[in-house]
Design brief:
The chain is α/β, with parallel strands linked by helices and 299 residues long. It folds into 3 domains: 78 residues, Orthogonal Bundle (Arc Repressor Mutant, subunit A), CATH 1.10.10; 104 residues, Periplasmic binding protein-like II (D-Maltodextrin-Binding Protein, domain 2); 104 residues, Periplasmic binding protein-like II (D-Maltodextrin-Binding Protein, domain 2, 3-Layer(aba) Sandwich), CATH 3.40.190.10. The chain is 46% helix and 24% strand. The two termini are 46 Å apart.
């Protein structure tokens, strides 16, 4: 299976037209059609169907499209890393759990960038499980996840720690201090199950004899900002790491509600591959500098 055929397939899937892709790629339409036929023969499935709207992907074509995007992304990273070896410059890729990516690491990244000005830096947010996969696959040079991991091939060290607090609108009618049992009568807005902070909360409550099903959870949301917006609009209260709410507390949009006997840490760990697996002295130097400075440089 040739990478060129996969890349052309991906373009056809996006454009929904063989003729437009052939013209843009400076090859004849019959030649491109033959290449796609060979690709279909190799995978043993029909990938395209013609319709009034142009080219439509079959079910097998949709699967192929998902993997094609991954192949192309890995190839682009490969070309970039090979270029980095010769120039000692390039892009340093960081993947981090969304809360850390949005609220803690931008300041650290600025400091690292200042130390290594010949590199470009990218920071993307993703669930911890996806961050682990990206670092293992070499799609990210360094990752930041919630809680430890023993994933093979990775070093895992504590980066920094934060506290999880219960927050409400500053005008919300709730006692300054509340017990976990009393909290069950108040509405809560929580992050979705993909967030590590949600899973930490579930584990913490369960260890203390409380099940999340006993609480009035209005809904789950897929971003910290949407949870904060709901709380600010007095739809309910929420458990969030301090780094995500400190600005709103300072601006008096939110207030911390003390929960009796509640002490939940939001521990963030850095992960990276060995020096041999990284294969680039410049990138590995950035990893070690990042690891040593992140705790005192987070926002």
């Amino acid at each position: 299976m040739q990478l060129e055929h996969i890349m052309l397939f991906s373009k056809i899937a996006e454009e929904k037209s063989i003729s437009r892709v052939a013209q843009a790629s400076h090859i004849s339409q019959p030649a491109l059609s033959q290449q796609m036929q060979r690709l279909e023969e190799e995978v043993g499935q029909k990938l395209f169907e013609r319709s009034n709207r142009g080219i439509e992907l079959t079910e097998a074509g949709q699967v192929m499209q998902r993997y094609a995007a991954q192949f192309i992304h890995i190839y682009d990273n490969f070309r970039e890393d090979m270029n980095n070896l010769s120039t000692r410059t390039g892009t340093f890729r960081v993947a981090a759990t969304p809360v850390a990516a949005n609220y803690a690491l931008p300041c650290s990244l600025f400091k690292v960038n200042y130390k290594f000005p010949s590199y470009n830096f990218s920071l993307v947010g993703a669930p911890s499980s996806e961050v682990i996969h990206k670092v293992q696959a070499g799609e990210a040079d360094m990752g930041f996840i919630v809680d430890k991991t023993e994933a093979p091939g990775l070093f895992c060290t504590e980066a920094f720690s934060d506290k999880v607090y219960l927050v409400a609108n500053s005008s919300y009618n709730v006692p300054e201090t509340i017990a976990l049992e009393s909290l069950k009568k108040y509405p809560l807005v929580l992050l979705s199950e993909t967030f590590s902070s949600y899973r930490l909360l579930l584990k913490y409550l369960k260890a203390r004899g409380h099940d999340i099903s006993q609480y009035r959870v209005l809904y789950h949301l897929d971003s910290t900002e949407s949870v904060k917006s709901s709380v600010i609009n007095q739809f309910g209260m929420a458990f969030l790491p301090y780094m995500a709410i400190k600005k709103e507390i300072y601006q008096k949009q939110l207030k911390v509600v003390q929960v009796q006997d509640f002490d939940l840490n939001y521990d963030v760990y850095s992960i990276y591959r060995s020096k041999e697996d990284v294969g680039n002295d410049g990138v590995y130097a950035i990893i070690k500098y990042f690891e040593n400075t992140v705790k005192r440089s987070i926002c």
